[in-house]
Design brief:
By secondary structure, this protein is mainly β. The chain has two helices and 13 strands; from the N terminus they run ββββββββαββββαβ. It has one domain (2-140).
Length: 144
């Protein structure tokens, strides 16, 4: 499937990533991890650089009981990224009927209690709006 302004990102843990920026790296890797009782299914797009590899785009699907509201999700991600939640400049964005938060190359939203998606882009490679654009392309797959 060809996506206008990018390429298809495939399926990740019950979600479809509909748009990956054209300039995102071609090396794609999936990871599973857990932190503070929240599981992460992660896909990264990276590219080779002179001193190794650089991640251009990350999409995380997060699952955990503590992710009950958008505020709790923000607090969790601030702790995960070792940021001060009160000092983290984020603005609301909408995607369909969902409201999320975005800033600094990151866009995240609560799909429903216990389930969230987080998109991060490399700001040296893309502008901050790219995270919101990618987030807007992420859709939950129908239950099998």
């Amino acid at each position: 499937m060809t996506v206008v302004g990018g390429r298809d990102g495939g399926d990740l843990d019950g979600f479809h990533v509909g748009r990956v920026p054209e300039d995102a790296g071609e090396l794609v890797s999936d990871f599973a991890s857990e932190w503070e009782n929240v599981s992460f299914a992660t896909r990264v797009w990276e590219r080779a650089v002179d001193d190794g590899y650089r991640v251009d785009l990350r999409v995380h699907v997060l699952r955990g009981e503590r992710l009950t509201t958008l505020v709790r999700l923000r607090e969790f991600l601030a702790e995960y990224h070792e940021r001060d939640s009160a000092e983290w400049p984020l603005a609301e964005f909408t995607r369909g009927g969902d409201v999320g938060l975005a800033g600094g190359g990151e866009a995240f939203w609560l799909v429903r209690p216990g389930l969230a998606v987080d998109v991060l882009v490399d700001l040296d490679r893309f502008d901050a709006e790219t995270a919101i654009e990618v987030a807007g392309s992420v859709t939950e797959l129908p239950a099998a």
